[in-house]
Amino acid sequence: MEFAIISTLNGVTYGLLLFMVSAGLTLIFGMMGVLNFAHASFYMLGAYVAYAVSSIFGFWTGILVAPIVVGLVGMAVERFLLPRVHAHGHAHELLLTFGLALIIEELIKLFFGDFPVNYQMPEALRFSAFEIFGTGYPFYRMFIGAVAVIMFTVLWLLLTRTRTGIVVRAAERLPQMAEALGHNIPIVFMFVFGTGAALAGLAGAVAGAFYPTNPNMGIELGVIVFVVVVVGGLGSLKGSLVASLLIGLFSSFSVGLDWSVASMFDVVGLGDWARSVGGLLTLELSSVSATIPFALMLIVLLVRPAGLMGERN
Amino acid sequence: MTSIQKILLALLLVLLIAVPPFLGLGWQNALINVLISSLFALAFNLLNGQAGLLSFGHAAYFGVGAFAALHLMIAVEDGLFFPTPLLPLAGGLAGLVVGVVAGYFSTMRSGVYFALVTLAIAELFHSLAPHLEGTFGGEAGVSSMRMPWMGFGFGTIIEVYYLTLGWVVLCGLALWAYTRTPFGRLTLALRDNEQRVKFLGYNAHYAKVIVFAVSAMMTGVAGALLAISNETANYSLFSGSVSAQVVLQTFVGGSTVFFGPVIGATVFTLFSFLISDLTRSWLFYQGLIFVLVMLYAPTGIGGVIDHHIRNRRQLDLAKIGGPYLVALGGGILIAAGTVFLTESAEVLFGQDYAMARDGASGGFPAYDLFGLSWSPLNPVTWLVPLVLLCGGVFILIRARRVIDRLWARKDEATTADMTVGAGGKE
């Protein structure tokens, strides 16, 4: 019981963090058809900018400045770099963002070193929210989750309840028609890209203070975020929320379980045979927890490439 | 291939055979790596350049080939009779088998989705391999020894070099010949218009599976050659950086030209061999080169060379050579400025400098770079890269304007030629 409740709490907060990063990625893909390989680098950039700023001006300033800086970087990428390769097709756009991801990672290593930096939450936030099974549950985890929920609500209201939201959705559906009606679509694209990057930056700034902040954090999260947006459906915000929670819960539960295929065979009395075969059959769930998201992504791509909630194939 | 190209290729081959015995061990090793990454990039580009399928998970087949060869090497150590020079066959076979299965599923999708499927397959291998002790040797990996065969000891690097050279040349030529077969031409058609291929009555999916499998097979041979050279391999061969490296090399070299990837593989492998000792930022430079090539020469080095060869008759070398040299000078200035700033950043933000600052009680002591001493508070230190960058950009823009004008004039001349030519035929 203790395991189940703690795992659920951890899984939901981790899932919400994943969602903060994947929301921007899926928004950008839905609108421009660009799979942004540099998106997870924006997450890392956010953490490092927040670290650099907060060491001088305090934690909250860092949290505020990081998304703005990262958002501006995102806008610059969309404005000055992507149009140059647009004529050569989506593959080149993808490759460009891939190259940018490499550059951002190396720049971070250049300025901050190839090791984790000491980016910490302020003492004022370092307390336990409540006692559960004799141990305190860190408030900061709840804080990460709350930031994600607030962000999702604001984004949702913005997209569905405001004029700007209508223009953005129109630009996503039929960009040429929206442009013909007099809306400045390139500016809309630039702001959507910037917003997506800023969200990733915010996620990095918030999560970096809790999880380790190192130059690998972008790549580590990046592949998982790809899994999330693919499983949820590329371009679908709701889908990526569901998929984020799913992957978050799965990864927090699986690390503590020692189920294997062999133990499933036990039910029908073939457990010993399976153990004698070894290999894949005796791998424990905890050790393949990093593998299953990719297997899930593979299955979704092959069976239903539109993902759980995507509309288009 | 034109006769000039054949002569050049033969000359290159003679050099590759004759020169290495006179080189040091480090260079011999570097050349082995150049050859292996060339074959890897060629195999990758069969899929990318020919069939238009961008794979982000070719590390999977590279790694599979390496492990297959190692397991066979272990069996040979234990007394199995198998000629050492034929070990890459095991890698090729393993790559082929895995490639058929992976290719069957991944080619069901195209575009971004194809890239994601290949990425997922490679990540499956990467995340499972450390847990499979028997096949991939866990985190430590699998090791073996090269066994002597028929008087060849395979104990020296030069022997391994010639073995690698033989296989790479053989496979490279086979891949080139493949693109010349009717089926190879069909692959090009798949890239350009899949719908039409289907209308012509071909099974597009099977055709793609075959191309994928051939590409994976050759990748497996490259992996096996690496395993033979290193005598060891672990799960890091499956990592995303291996897949990324081949993408980088291929596109910098030029994916539209058959031998373009070889250029990219050679440039990057030698670059890392020569530069990685000098600076820790070489990966940064590599990324920068890649992005610059993507932005300003999307067809890659090979594509640019090819473009010039195609237009060599219309091009007035005497006229365009001057502006090219000026542009090169501008590029060198920009590169110098960038390198100066990067290396300065590396020093100033490094741990050694932080300690030096502690020693100087918080001040900014001077640092050494390129044999000179620079003070961070002296404006001259920052004026140097600024002048280099601004001067370089200025020169480059001016030279580019001249070059653009010359090319435009050439295009006009070509159109005029063609009208005259067509008129003459009538």
UniProtKB/TrEMBL annotation, chain B:
Give a yes or no for keyword Nucleotide-binding in this entry.
no
Protein location:
Cell membrane
Protein name, entry field: Branched-chain amino acid ABC transporter permease
Q: Write down the species.
A: Thalassospira povalilytica
User: Is Transmembrane among the key words of this record?
Assistant: yes
Q: What is its main location?
A: membrane
Q: How does it sit in the membrane?
A: Multi-pass membrane protein
Keywords attached to this entry: Cell membrane, Membrane, Transmembrane, Transmembrane helix
Transmembrane annotation, as ranges: 7-24, 30-47, 54-74, 86-105, 112-129, 149-178, 206-229, 282-305, 317-341, 380-399
Q: Which Gene Ontology MF annotations are present?
A: branched-chain amino acid transmembrane transporter activity
- What would be one Gene Ontology cellular-component term for the protein? plasma membrane
